[in-house]
């Protein structure tokens, strides 16, 4: 379990992380989602002791990362896939990390097998693609068979096979009871990988909870109907709390009523419906609604910065 309490990080005048609280539970994949500059990396760096908080605490399994006796065996971390020494082979790179915790070559070979990099074991890390570097970073994170795994943007640079592999691999690690925290700005990927979501924007938590709850709190489910008697239907459905929106193709989107309520109201007026379908909001819509105004760099802000330059 990871627990973050009143965590704040200021760089001179910039507040990168602003008094945040959250808990990451074991047995689940928790997605840490937010626009560029939201504070994801800074938060993860504080959790693993690479940055000192300005105030507040971040604990892994009830202790600060720096106080863990055998960190590699408790927390697996991938923060920067390009951080490996370029002149070393993948095998030697992993062996060097393993040696810090008296982990032997057998486990090094095992994690290379798990992450699909055995064939490039003797290749120089400097020649690796970003995707291979991500696999190497994940292999390093797994060396100590840790119960907590923290990965910053682990699917950056991966091809579709690699993305699929990371997704099923992380789900498997969570199913084994581990705590898995991964950051990404790819909403579609999170929708398929995460059980829980923490959404951050401008250093503040915007949403925290089960994926479905976060999505339904930030989006509206609509009932789409079609009829030849649109005006009559609108009159039959109009009431407080119900919003009716005409679509360019003639459909009417109804929010504030279930599909059954819409169909019953139409039937009681003798209005024939040709379509009654329910459309839930996507994670992308939820994300955009939640992070509206939180992106550090948007097309408009870049344009105005350039004008002022
Ligand atoms: N060492 C630093 N010195 C000054 N400002 C920093 C430093 N590190 C991060 N920041 C600022 O803190 C804010 C949060 O950055 P952070 O890298 O944590 O965001 P992020 O959510 O990981 O973004 P991205 O998705 O782009 O990686 C940004 O405004 C960033 O410019």
Automatic annotation (TrEMBL):
GO MF entries: ATP binding; ATP hydrolysis activity
Domain ABC transporter: from-to ranges: 2-227
Secretion signal span: none
Annotated InterPro entries: AAA+_ATPase, ABC_transporter-like_ATP-bd, P-loop_NTPase
Coiled coil (UniProt feature): none
One Pfam family linked to the record: ABC_tran
Sorted UniProt keywords: ATP-binding, Nucleotide-binding, Transport
Gene3D superfamilies named among the record's database cross-references: P-loop containing nucleotide triphosphate hydrolases
Family that this chain belongs to: Belongs to the ABC transporter superfamily.
Protein name per the record: ATP-binding cassette domain-containing protein
């Amino acid at each position: 379990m990871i627990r973050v309490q009143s965590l704040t990080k200021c760089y001179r005048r910039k507040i990168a992380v602003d008094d945040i609280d959250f808990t990451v539970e074991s047995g689940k994949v928790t997605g840490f989602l937010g626009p560029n500059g939201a504070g994801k990396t800074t938060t993860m760096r504080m959790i693993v002791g690479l940055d000192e908080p300005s105030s507040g605490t971040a604990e892994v399994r009830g202790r600060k990362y720096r106080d863990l006796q055998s960190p590699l065996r408790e927390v697996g971390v991938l923060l920067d896939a390009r951080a490996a020494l370029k002149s070393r082979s993948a095998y030697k790179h992993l062996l060097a990390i393993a040696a810090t915790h008296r982990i032997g070559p057998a486990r090094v070979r095992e994690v290379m097998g798990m992450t699909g990099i055995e064939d490039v074991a003797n290749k120089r890390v400097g020649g690796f693609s970003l995707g291979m570097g991500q696999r190497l970073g994940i292999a390093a994170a797994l060396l100590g068979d840790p119960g907590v795994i923290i990965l910053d943007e682990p699917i950056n640079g991966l091809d579709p096979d690699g993305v699929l592999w990371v997704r099923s691999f992380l789900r498997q690690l969570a199913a084994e009871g581990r705590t898995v925290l991964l950051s990404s700005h790819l909403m579609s990927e999170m929708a398929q990988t995460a059980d829980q979501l923490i959404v951050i924007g401008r250093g503040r938590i915007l949403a925290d909870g089960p994926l479905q709850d976060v999505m339904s709190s930030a989006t509206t489910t609509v009932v789409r109907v079609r009829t030849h008697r649109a005006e009559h239907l609108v009159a039959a459905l109009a009431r407080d709390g119900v919003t009716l929106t005409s679509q360019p193709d003639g459909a009417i989107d109804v929010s504030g009523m279930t599909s059954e309520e819409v169909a019953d109201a139409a039937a009681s007026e003798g209005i024939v419906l040709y379509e009654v379908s329910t459309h839930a909001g996507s994670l992308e819509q939820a994300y955009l609604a939640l992070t509206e105004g939180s992106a550090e760099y948007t097309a408009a802000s870049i344009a105005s910065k350039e004008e002022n330059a």
